Amino acid sequence: MDETHDPRLRSWVASANAEDTDFPIQNLPYGAFRRRGSGEPIRIGVAIGVQVLDLGLALERAQWASDVARLLASLAAGDLNGFMALGPQARRIVRVALSAALAEGSAQQAELAACLVPQADAEMVLPCRIGDYTDFYISVHHATTIGKQFRPDNPLLPNYRWVPIGYHGRASSIQVSGQAFRRPVGQTKAPQTSVPTLSPSRRLDYELEMGIVIGQANAQGEPVPIEHAEDHVFGLTLFNDWSARDIQGWEYQPLGPYLSKNFASTLSPWVVTMEALAPFRRPFSRPEGDPQPLPYLDSRQNREAGAVEVELEVWIQTEAMRRAGHAGDLLSSSSLADAYWTVAQLVAHHTVNGCNLNPGDLLGTGTLSGPKPEQAASLMELTSSGKQHVKLSNGERRGFLEDGDTIILRGYCQRSGQRRIGFGECRGTVMPAHVVQPA
After folding, report:
1. Which class does domain 133-431 fall in?
2. Cα-Cα-Cα-Cα dihedral sign, residues 62, 418, 236, 162
3. What is the dihedral of CA 65, 67, 73, 79, to 10 degrees?
4. Scanning 15, 153, 339, 367, which has the fewest C-beta atoms within 10 Å of its C-beta?
């Protein structure tokens, strides 16, 4: 916590002072963009109110201390990965400098005002190069609810409370918020048939997750101790790991998800840094009676402030709603703070065998459901695997997603005495399948 978190701090960018903005001066998340339709090279910016500060222009046109100018160089070149690799101290130096430059009374206001681009005019792309992607399973509530559908008497597998479960996903199909994707095609097998068939998924689902963006790398063979794990994390984003439940049910044994997961994932365009999240930390503890983590997954720092309070929402806008000008319905709300494992524990576990993480690698949290039925973060949970349809405000019903449906994830942090900050939107739309025709 430092002067950049002061809730009284205001910006000369007027929209950043609105009570309901996701991007006050206390936030300053990073994203990659260019002016819509310009064909310009991708550049890095920070969101401030309804604007984006173009850091390439900011370095060129404004005066900065020499150490700040040196750190801004990779950002000015459009290389967020290079900046993330510099580690937490570099982030803090730039955060303090940007906060001062964007604050009311800044001597840099005149120069930086010409470096603002309205977010409405910005074409956002993935914020960084994602080399690898691992998806975890950190909500015990999601794991229990899903487990009950398959193992009513023993929903949690015996390793769940001891080890953060994860699998290696597909980085190439991660796309930025606002894009559409095709309904996946794959093998499925109905219980009453002896032969599987190839067809479009009929049980397409969303998964409300958060993405953990790795910053500083670790060398192969060098585990990251939990005490230093968050030094290797740049920040958090919203993440939707779309899932084809019928394809998943047939293919996942014995090696886990494959075509049911790798066809598309959607990432929000803004990465909220760990520094911006500092006011929203809270103690991490296990439910009474549960085993305590093994020593490599435990530290005083993680116990005292390992959890992060991020309130999460899932919205649906069907094609009929969109045609009628309807903004959509809220499906569920939950919180990252209810997760069974923390960000630091995921990094420590991922590297304990010597695995090397690189700048831009993405760790998904897994579906972040809460303890109450209405806090379920997937349709598979909300509808009991499609058996109990959700009724929408316009009379439509959903067991699983239909073509034309848009899912919107939103997230924000708020606490008494602190400025509310948000993550923007993570929005994706289902398109009809591209059906494979037999030769």
Report:
1. alpha beta
2. positive
3. -130
4. 153
Task: Please tell me what DSSP assigns to residue 48.
Answer: E
The two structure tokens encoding residue 157: 């597998």
pTM attached to this predicted model = 0.96
Beta bridge partners of 124: 33
Residue 255, pLDDT score: 86
pLDDT averaged per 10 residues in sequence order, the chain, 439 residues: 96 97 98 93 97 97 96 94 96 98 97 98 97 95 88 87 94 97 94 92 97 98 98 98 94 89 97 98 95 97 98 98 98 97 98 98 97 96 95 98 98 97 98 80
Q: How many CA atoms lie within 13 A of 277 on its CB side?
A: 27
Packing angle, helices 66-76 and 88-102, rounded to 10 = 100
What is the C-alpha R_g of the chain? Answer: 22
pLDDT at residue number 149: 83
| Per-residue pLDDT, 253 | 84
Instruction: List the beta bridge partners of residue 103.
Output: 11
Mark whether 326 is an active-site residue. Answer: no
Question: What pLDDT sits at residue 16?
Answer: 98
What letter represents residue 354's amino acid?
Answer: G
Dihedral of CA 401/407/164/348: which sign? positive
As given in the structure block, the two tokens for residue 15 are 């929209």
What's the number of CA atoms in the CB half-sphere (13 Å) around residue 63? 4
CB 102: neighbour CB atoms within 10 A? 26
pLDDT at 191: 87
Can you give the pLDDT at residue 438? 65
Question: In Å, how far are 102, 165, 211, 237, 276 from 272, measured between CA atoms?
Answer: 17, 25, 10, 6, 7
Strand intervals (E) in 30-99? 30-35, 43-48, 51-54
Quote the tokens at residue 151. Answer: 């193992």
Q: Which of 141, 142, 232, 350 is catalytic?
A: 142
- Token output for 148: 């009950």
- Fold classification of 3-125 is SH3 type barrels. (2.30.30)
Domain boundaries, given as residue ranges, for the chain: 3-125, 133-431
Hunting for tokens 């093994």 — which residue is that?
A: 294
Dig out the tokens for 350 from the structure.
Answer: 């991922």
